[in-house]
Amino acid sequence: MAHPTTTPDRALVVIVDDNAAVRASLRFSLELGGYEVWTCAAGEDLLGLDLPADGACLVIDERLPGIGGLACLECLRARGVTLPAALITSHPQASLRAAAAEVGAPIIEKPILGESLTLWIGDALGR
After folding, report:
1. Considering the domain boundaries, does residue 55 fall inside one?
2. pLDDT along the chain (127 residues), means of 10
3. Are 56 and 13 in contact (CB under 8 A)?
4. How many domains would you assign to the chain?
């Protein structure tokens, strides 16, 4: 999956969610906030991207067809990708919270209310 290279003045947010409406909504609001946004419908798509080393963060749905969000993030960490990442999901179990913490990913619960996601993105990208 080809994406344009990031522009130096705009931080990149990569959204991975199998729900097209969620991807479109998040893309719209984040682009209004000044971010460059790439979207993927599946974890395999994310794993195929040429991600930048910094200046970006990942927002990954846990419940994806094929490889789940946590497993996808574990693959990226094993490859040395250290970009900040958050998992989004509804009703996370304690075991998922613990496993996500091990790879340094907070969980942001769906439905995403208020500014919880945009605040995390701002913190993750130093804005």
Report:
1. yes
2. 55 97 95 96 97 96 96 96 96 95 94 90 92
3. yes
4. 1
Q: Is residue 4 part of a domain?
A: no
Residue whose pair of structure tokens reads 């613990």 in the numeric block? 98
Of the candidates 92, 100, 95, the residue with the CA atom closest to the CA atom of residue 73: 100
Residues 6+ apart with CB under 8 A from 72: 16, 43, 46, 47, 60, 64
**Residues 23, 24, 27: CA angle, nearest 5 degrees:** 85
pTM: 0.92
Measured CA to CA, the distance from residue 73 to residue 60 in angstroms comes to 8
DSSP 30: H
The CATH code of the domain that includes 112 is: 3.40.50.2300
Residues 6+ apart with CB under 8 A from 127: 11, 121
Looking at the DSSP bridge assignments, the partners of residue 52 are none
Close Cβ partners of 81 (under 8 Å, ≥ 6 residues apart): 51
